[in-house]
Records
---
Amino acid sequence: MSTDFARQGFTFGKCGASDLTKCLNSLTSKQLDDPCVRRNAVLLAVIQYPISLIGIVLNLITVFNILGTKSLWSNVSMLLISNMALCDLSSCLDALIITTILLDVPYERFLDNVRSICLPLGLLWFVGICGSTIVSSLLTIERYLAIVFAMKPHVRMRHKIAKLLLALTWLLVLTLGFYSLAEEFSTHNSFCIPGAATEKSPKHLRFIIPVGIIGMMLFVVNIFLYIHIYLVVRKSQHNMGIKKESRTAKRIAALVFTNMVFFFAPIFMTGILVLSDTYPTIQADGEGEIWRMVVTLYFPVVCFNLNACINPLWYAFRNKKFKAGLKEKLNSLMSHLLNFWQKMSVCCSNKNTYEPNPSDKKDIEMN
């Protein structure tokens, strides 16, 4: 049974042929003293937990601050940033939940319930990665129109157009995500990733590869747009309007290009692995399967999760209006907490004050 787990891509430790059965059985019984389990638990806890938690906090702050501040919500760039934060929040939640499950749920129970666990998590992963990719392209287009057509104010991505494009983006992403859910593409590996390369599921590769190619094409288009932006800014150094817009473009460019790096790196590594003549399969010593898992599972999860964590820091937290709105909300929150604390203190002090009983009052009056 334990070797069947390995063939499905559910191995975690570096288990040789002699101790493969023992190691995988220890995973099902959750014996944390086993070196295979300890190595996996430490790797997941040390890398995934802090990144996921920080990413969730940063993206929640980004979403609520933008949605709760009218001046930010009415800004097209911030509207797009808030939607990117929602996508990144989805990625961080997916990473946190799957890490918690793999650490706390006995492995045999995980395999018995892989459909109920991996299908919703696969949808979260798909929405997070694909949504973030598309929204980053919309951000690039918005900056491109603002800078290249600076002298034509009517050529802009207006608020209504931005909301329409975002609605279409969410419709597309959710449609593809539910299709991957219906085809159970995320049930072929222990991290519930729809795009992980697996020999036993070529059908989902025929779906995920075109999606990946489209994502690559979007990023290539972004590169050419930013090259054009750079040339326009260089020619118009004395135009104050273009200089102001270009400062915003630089921050968004940093965000988009980090998205590109973290998007391309796992695909590039997986492509090399799949196209190489020595494509690792499960061998007698288990080394090939371990290498495949590191490249196609651990590496993409860490890359996408880290990207979702740092995205808010590139633009939202460097924006003056964003920081002013956040400061105002924090001051308001502290004021409410202080008022609540004062009311509780007064209430507690009144309870502790001695109040004579009515009978005692009568005795005092008679005396």
Note: The CA atoms of residues 238 and 307 lie 35 Å apart.
---
Amino acid sequence: MRKQDKYIFTGVALAAGVIGLIDYFQQKDKLKRIGKKMTWENYNGHQALKKITVFGIVGGIAGNEFYKWEFREESKKEFSSDNFLRNLVREENPNLNPVKLQELKSITKEVKDKLYNEFSDQLVCYPETVGSLSKKIAITNTYDSDIVMPVKKDNHFGNMRNLSNEIHNTIEDLFEDNAEVIKRTRATSLLFQGNEGTHKIDIIYGREIGNYKEDKNLNLYIRRPFFWQKGKTFKTNIDIQKNLLRNKPKIREIIKLLKSYRDKNSLLIENTLLEQLALESLSVNNYGKEFSVTENLLECMDYIVERLSGTRILDYANSNNNLLNRIHLTDRQIAIQQINSDLIKINSNPYYIKEMFHK
């Protein structure tokens, strides 16, 4: 909840709560004077509701006005948006909780070892770690592990549907006593309860198309939500996914800020889409990489609005895949409206960037 919304909600709750209590005791006193006790039958709930509604609205308006006054006063102080954003990136560093991070890494290693022991004769190589941690774009509250299992072209599973079902079922047998096992569209998720909280590990399995060790191309199977629906295969390149952001520290910095902004504002933009649009927006052909953190972030947000308003965003790992299909039209419109609104407000007062991150 943003600061302004908190002030409005607090104003409503305080005003409505106080007036509700006052009305209750006034009614109780009035009944007492005529020798009656307060009961649900003689309590005038309609009267109380009217007062609570009216004064709740007044309280909300007062809370909003107090927020505006405080915001104006805070805006008069010296403020560096670059310093604020850099501090935010530091706050979002998973290394701030090394015990939790190490626990996840240990569980991930145990899972990979167990998978390799079970499937080694069917795999091209030892399971690989991909995802936000390996790409150095993880943020504090939302990081997990992604594991890729590249299956040989010549395997005993048969077609892709059988491969997907058999591997999922075996994973379930292997881990159901220690974790919650969830079948997802393209993967199997494991939820482990550790000493430092819940750890999520996604296991992605696919069949090599050519020579995986050379080209890193895999065919994945996409499950449908209902058993009578036919699934389909999906090509992806693991090397592109793993190395897309290598040697790009400024872009990784902006991606972390975008992920934090997305999560704090409940915007449903998938990681792959967010990462690719950030990379595009900060490429030499668009805005360059020599601007300040604030300029890079705002230009990137503006670019995201532009691209989400289009009809097609090609996946770098599969040119036949339109990434916009992964986000519902309604969710796209909500994201576009929220980002546009924030850009307008920041343009009128740079201090608003703190509100954007709920600070």
Note: The chain has 13 helices and nine strands.
---
Amino acid sequence: MVEKDCEKIYSLGYSFIMLSSFFAVFLGIGSYLMFKYTRNDTYLICIIGALISTAIFYIIRYIVNNNDYDDIYELNKGIFGKFLGRILNIILLLGFILMASIILFNNANFFNAEYLPDTSINFLKAIILLPLVYISSKSLASIIKMNQVLCIINIFMLFLSIIGVFAEFDITNLEPVFNASYGEIFKSIVLYVVVSIVPLSMLLVCSRKRIADSERLNGNLLKSFVFTNILQFLIVLITILVLGEKFISLFRFPEHIALKQFNLFNIFQRVENFLALQFYFSSFSLMSFLFYYIIKAMPSTKFRNYYSILISIFLYFFTNIIFNNTVIFTEMIDKYIIYVILITIFTPILATFAKLIMQNKFAKIDKK
């Protein structure tokens, strides 16, 4: 069943979904843990992790291309039946709720740690949730357009930041190479691949048939995936070049600390407030899609406005229960984020992929 709104969704804007989501899940979460494990070798981990995550990208793209329904929820009920489909959808919903909670607390923690240390995290969470109540009441096409605009702004600010910190680069910070143990390297690679599942899964928010220029979809998705991983590699590499192994592990948000060294021709300095918008825009975009996913799982989307308010209230109190403070949040992310993503998000997606493969295979046999 397709949404009632008839606004067109174009492949370029649609492909930008993973770009914004990547930054949101890596800053303070994925990258922080990778730096913790492999320190100045992390830029190499990004290359290996990106190559392996290509397999997940093709799984997601296959589902998008072969989805005859509106989204992943409808697809699961269509190919598995209502009972099994609803079970998979409930697991997915749980994963999206947990990820929304993680992103919300991480975002509030960022502004608390870097800008507003005397401000309550609860107050910051409320401020972050307010605009999400509004945007989540809009159509998917509107959310995708908003995300595209924010992505373009983010890319511009990122490249401006790279130019501004170029003078701070120290090539010796890349030495020694492969200083981490095999166990740390393996764990960091797994972390990169698993965390990348979250932004890629956001593409399942709709199917190919909703894309106006669907003939360009596969090409734009591949370009966006490659470009996103290159940007992630550059961010990690620049962080290492600026901070080095000794300082990377000292900060909760080392990428932001590196970009704070911005100094463009000794004219533009101290622009960290401006650069912080990169992280906020990315988190806001990802949270918007997570809200959309959660609302779509509700019995009826007629009450979208009320659902967005209820979800915000729920996340506000839920994060207070599971994350009492930053220390507990960091420990839980370190220990459980890989399992949370694999069990609640990747397992249902893998089941959907396997079922579609089987259906298409049997359909070809029947035609013969």
Note: The first strand starts at residue 263 and ends at 264.
---
Amino acid sequence: MQNMTGRFEGYYNWSETFTKDAVMTLVISERSLGKTYGLIKQCIYDYLNEGVRFCTLYRTDAERKEVAPCIFEKIEDDPDFKDEYLFKSNSKGAFIAKKPKEGEKEKWEQCAYHLALSMWQRDKKRGFKPCKRFIFDEAIIDSMDRYHGYLPGEVEILGQMLSTVARENEQNASEVKPRLYCLANACNFVNSIFIYFGITEMPKYGYSWYGSKTLLVHFVKPDEKRSELMKNETAAGKILSHSKVSRSNFDNKFLDANDDFIASKTKNAKFYMGFVFKSKTFGVWIDRNEGLLYVNEKIVKNSPYIYSLTTSDSRINLINLKKSSRVFRDMVELYYAGCIRYETIELRERFYQLLKMFGVC
């Protein structure tokens, strides 16, 4: 059985990405490019050739139970496997077997684990066989999705999960090197991975390294002909052509990828107030001559006008929220009037999430 090389026409090319051998890889592309399919297929080759398992990761236990049983629905019809192998998956793991001869039973072998990040403390008590590749799909949550959210400390939990399963130490570090692959669409620039690695500027198309070459981001440049075909010839493309969502789904462009209202505070701007929201500090400065508010991460120490809107465990601080509500109502009016400027795109989008609690939609 050979490794998967090259690419099928129109699908994501994993071969070049594998040669980079990053500890953590984030692939951002348009939808329906076959990222997940191609990666799972390579994981199957890994198991058949080397006997090493893979691991799929989900944010919650509910998501794991719903999605994990379906990971082989396309793979089982793949021409490279369908004549020789059988596949099955449940909420806890994935299995493979050679097609038995008539009258014989299948001999199932486990080739993958399915784990939920929310259960990592529990899973620390388990034992695992070596896993080479860890797959975290939908790593960036769509800003339109109001039913799912990032876990507190999500990237740290991903690291803890690799530690739990791989059990790397000085004796075995050279045996099976675990690699984490995060798969996403360009639906929200403000996401847990960009925030963790301090990515405040839009990545360029192609490969970029971050975090002392720990994170490799592959921002895939879309094929224009394919994008036009998807937009003009598919039902979803025709429906979404009237929406900005089309940029993310088919053009691989972040919906919030623009520099509207991005500006540094002026020399004449004076400190107005500060907020701490989900461990992020916002400093609000006012230039009365320009009639503008400027938002950055700088605050004046010991100022009485600094409000902590979340508690140490990320719950909403209702006392301070109520105390500052009148200020925020005024700020919402200024937001709609276009009178607020932000130092970075990330700050703009995170401050928008804060304003949503006070009526911005």
Note: The chain is about 30% helix and 20% strand.
